[in-house]
Amino acid sequence: SILVPILVVCEMKLCEVCYSVVEGKVAPSLNTVRDLTKDQDSACSFCKGLCWYVCSSELGAYLKEEFHGCGFQANACTIAVTLPLSLLIIERLLSVYVKDASETKWVIRKDDLVDGVKQFVRDAISTQISDVVGYAVTQEGPLYASINFSTVTKDDGSDEGDVNLEMLPEMLRTLTTLCPEEFRRRHVRKGRKASAALHNQASIGKALDKLTIEQLKKSFHVPPEPSNEFARVPQLEFKHDSIYIGGRYKKFCRGLSQTPWIIKKERLGDSSVEELLVRDLMDVVGADETKFSSAGREDVDVRMLGSGRPFVVEFINPRNCFNITQDLLLAHEGVVNNSTDKVELHHMQVVARNQVQLLREGAEKKKKTYACPIWTERDLIQVDLDKINAIENLIIQQYTPLRVSHRRTLMCRDRQLYRLHIQKVKPNFFYLQLCSQSGTYIKEFVHGDFGRTTPSMKTLLGCEVDILALDVLDVDLEWPPQITSTTPQSSS
């Protein structure tokens, strides 16, 4: 609590909320503040009318209009409240006044008054949202509402014009004039994030710490005069938790990349697996963008057969989460599967965020089964076939393949081949099936990659071997999970 002589407090014009915070008492309720300000002046030396305003029916009506008109489907939200930055200056001025006028050692400790008022403002707005808007206010979304009473704009990276002081011209401009070095744009090291604005809690605090009591008294009005200048409509920004939709896909054609294929800003190919699977869902979900992930990825010239490859799509900042039902996803599968012979989609469902992590972890440990027709320089005899078919749990060493060395780290990787099976198709042509550890370069295992993969089919058979085509037959990963509800909810 903050202990300040009552006489000094009474000489300052504080509202009931700020008065309670200064004395270390529990702040009054929203309805109490409304009743107290019906016939009284709501002006305050510290909050400048903000505490009254957040309790007003005017703000309640504004919040209702903004929440219901934001375009996001939700029934619960998390809020973040930003107070006017000049409260930091006012708090310091009140501390100077109390210390001088009380003739005691009682002081307003740094941030006590700001933090107390901020908690009241947050509680009052939470009550407004619950009572008027009809949303529950929780600690974890899914809708996030940023409620900003500050007039300082975010830094756009330009050399000037990044701070708007129209609503707070006097105090911030005065402080900037007194301590300009604290508000200069500083060089930011590569990889580090720049501050959102030149005027922020840290820069204002450093500037105030540099000023003496005499400088503060000379440059500002001590104590600050009461007013209602902060009783104004806040800026609201909304953001929704991502929703994750998972499933499995098959790819029946060669020449189709998993995601849009862009090389040197030029697109290759007319479409991709990702676009065929999810583009029609974008309008339904109303997301800003999507991110496609899967348990590994096949090359553009490789087919994905068998039970398909597990995948998940993150829909970022979705607006229409209530629209995503299991029936809709089943209907979407039918639309995709009937509209193209390139891919097939199944097992679609909304998945929780922790399930996405299980997909990523499982992708590192999974086994994959492949099939490929191969050519050998000499025609193999039964002894050769028996030798290959007897191989189990073979450890191979693979240096980064030449074909991807321009975009992958040069290193040697140990990979395990669990089993192999080869059968003859016709002279010099064979059909090879193999089950391998995730991350094995199958093409390189077949032809050896100029000795960069050892052992390889080339070294095992003692002749040149080449791969003619490649198919993925199975990805040994039980994902997505079994559906337990007919109407999935937004993930959190």
Structure description:
This protein has 16 helices and 17 strands. It is α+β, with helices and mostly antiparallel strands. Strands 5, 8, 9, 10, 11, 12, 13, 14, 15, 16 and 17 form an eleven-stranded mixed beta sheet that branches. Strands 2-1-3-4 form a four-stranded mixed beta sheet, with helices on one face. The chain has a two-stranded antiparallel ribbon with strand order 6-7. Strand 6 and strand 7 (about 265-270) form a beta hairpin.
What percent of residues adopt helix (DSSP H or I)? 25-40%
- Overall, the morphology is elongated
The secondary-structure class comes to alpha+beta
Rg from Cα: 33 Å
- By DSSP, the count of extended strands is 17
Characterize the main sheet: 11 strands, mixed
- Average residue pLDDT: 87
Summarize this structure as a short list of keywords or feature phrases:
single chain, 492 residues, four-stranded mixed beta sheet, 16 helices, disordered C terminus
Task: Give a quick precis of the structure.
Helices cover 33% and strands 24% of the residues.
Write the layout of secondary structure elements.
Layout: H1 6-11, H2 16-23, H3 30-36, H4 50-53, H5 57-68, E1 76-82, H6 86-102, H7 112-133, E2 136-137, E3 143-148, H8 169-178, H9 201-210, H10 213-219, E4 235-240, E5 243-251, E6 261-263, E7 266-268, H11 273-285, E8 289-294, E9 303-316, H12 326-339, E10 343-351, H13 353-365, E11 367-376, H14 382-389, E12 392-399, E13 412-426, E14 429-437, H15 442-447, E15 453-454, H16 457-461, E16 465-467, E17 471-476
Parallel strand pairs: 1-2, 1-3, 9-17
Antiparallel strand pairs: 3-4, 5-9, 5-10, 6-7, 8-9, 11-14, 11-16, 11-17, 12-13, 12-15, 13-14
Helix pairs in contact: 2-7, 5-7
